[in-house]
Automatic annotation (TrEMBL):
One of its GO terms (molecular function) is riboflavin synthase activity. Keywords: Repeat, Riboflavin biosynthesis, Transferase. Homotrimer. It holds the Pfam family Lum_binding. Its EC number is 2.5.1.9. The keyword Transferase applies. It catalyses: 2 6,7-dimethyl-8-(1-D-ribityl)lumazine + H(+) = 5-amino-6-(D-ribitylamino)uracil + riboflavin. The keyword Ion transport does not apply. Residues 1-96, 97-190 form the Lumazine-binding domain. This is Riboflavin synthase. Lumazine-binding repeats lie at residues 1-96, 97-190.
Length: 209
């Protein structure tokens, strides 16, 4: 699990295309200081498993499913990425609970003089986003300031702009989005409840053990 508090900005130093996958090497002196084979590191919000650590760099494999859902399909050597190690048990929950399982990509639309930044998002994700709720953008835990059918806005403080890749985003850039997993669980449980209620209302019978 992660909390969306970026520890450092890393740099992609190598990209190798594999069969239905890709292998990335990323420079991150801080996150590799205690990392080893099998550890989890979030790369711009994507939870990836460390394959190898060498001289302040770590290597990860990115499977087809992840490439299809995230911006890592377009990553290139020299690109900057947000890095966060998995949160240890008993660690501080500085942002919000994140899995590093990207739900889809959004598009950076722009930022005004007050730091209010707007992103486009896939319409099917909007039902999980609420004003003053949490959303992860490129692995950064953010609070939603405004929401519409296919866009949302967040207010970015100077520290976030400096300490993450969001400060260098330009209009049209893809970003990784992870909505609040609690909202998805609530929806699934509510759907089952509503379905049962409709079934009983329409005269269905239900056996219970």
């Amino acid at each position: 699990m992660f909390t969306g508090i970026v520890e450092e900005i890393g740099e992609v130093t190598a990209v190798e295309q594999l069969t239905n996958a890709a292998r990335l090497r990323v420079r991150g002196p801080l996150v590799t200081s205690d990392a080893g084979h099998g550890d989890s590191i979030a790369v711009s919000g994507v939870c990836l498993t460390v394959v190898e650590v060498t001289g302040g760099e770590f290597t990860v494999d990115v499977v087809h499913e992840t490439l299809q859902r995230s911006s890592l399909a377009k990553v290139a050597v020299g690109d900057r990425v947000n890095l966060e190690r998995a949160t240890p048990a008993g660690g501080r929950l500085g942002g919000h609970i994140m899995q590093g399982h990207v739900d889809g990509t959004g598009v950076f639309l722009g930022r005004d003089e007050n730091g209010v930044t707007t992103f486009a998002m896939p319409g099917h994700l909007s039902r999980y986003v609420v004003e003053k709720g949490s959303i992860a953008v490129d692995g950064v835990s953010l609070t939603v300031a405004a929401i519409s059918a296919d866009q949302f806005a967040v207010a970015l403080i100077p520290t976030t702009l400096e300490a993450t890749t969001l400060g260098g985003r330009e209009a049209g850039d893809l970003v990784n989005l992870e909505v609040d997993v609690v909202a998805k669980y609530v929806e699934k449980l509510a759907e089952a409840h509503i379905r049962d209620q409709v079934h009983n209302r329409d005269g269905g019978t239900e056996e219970r053990s």
